[in-house]
Design goal:
mainly beta, 5-stranded antiparallel beta sheet, 191 residues, Immunoglobulin-like, 4-stranded antiparallel beta sheet
Length: 191
């Protein structure tokens, strides 16, 4: 840029203006951008569509474009299960969903009097096609209500089997009375 004397150069001719604006994008002509440009206002998809495409196509940062439908999406999938509980244990509520690579498991398990001694493993269910975790994992943040303080340790196997191990914190081991276990856990699927 050159400095202009505001008094001597109050008016510029059209050719002088055009000469000074040769590297500026104008709004009334078709142009191609060969360098990088920063847009300081929003541009509509129809105004910025790739030749031969419409606003269902997205320009990719690394070059090229892709239809929005090709990105796929996250679908909420209900995961079925087979109940493995036996009396006096019952499943009050059990829901399992897969959302992309995440599996969410919610369970409310009722255990009647004498369901198990401390450390006993109680089968709950076998999940079907859940995208089982890559590694065996436990969720033991569930506190038991019952005759004595207990912790319910839920075990999620890579084979889809879910079990509970009851652990007495104090008092009499095992369940002298009825108890309920709740869990709500989300884990990454293996596939």
């Amino acid at each position: 840029d050159e400095t202009q004397d505001p008094v001597a150069n109050t008016y510029l001719t059209q050719s002088e203006v055009d000469a000074k604006l040769t590297n500026v994008v104008t709004t009334n002509t078709t142009q191609s951008i060969t360098g990088s440009k920063t847009f300081t206002s929003n541009i509509s998809a129809t105004g910025f569509a790739k030749t031969g495409k419409d606003d269902t196509s997205v320009l990719l940062a690394g070059g090229g474009d892709m239809l929005l439908s090709e990105f796929g999406g996250l679908e909420l999938v209900n995961i079925n299960y087979t109940s493995n509980v036996v009396y006096p244990t019952s499943i009050m509520t059990l829901k399992c969903y897969r959302y992309g690579q995440l599996v969410t498991f919610y369970g409310y398990i009722y255990m009647g009097n004498g369901a198990g001694a401390s450390g006993a493993s109680i089968a709950v269910c076998t999940l079907e096609s859940a995208g089982f975790p890559k590694y065996l994992f436990y969720a033991d943040d569930i506190v038991f209500a019952g005759s004595a303080p207990h912790v319910a340790n839920f075990r999620f196997g890579t084979d889809g089997k879910v079990t509970i191990t009851i652990k007495a914190l104090s008092g009499t081991a095992g369940l002298a009375g009825a108890a309920s276990a709740y869990i709500n856990v989300t884990y990454p699927a293996a596939n």
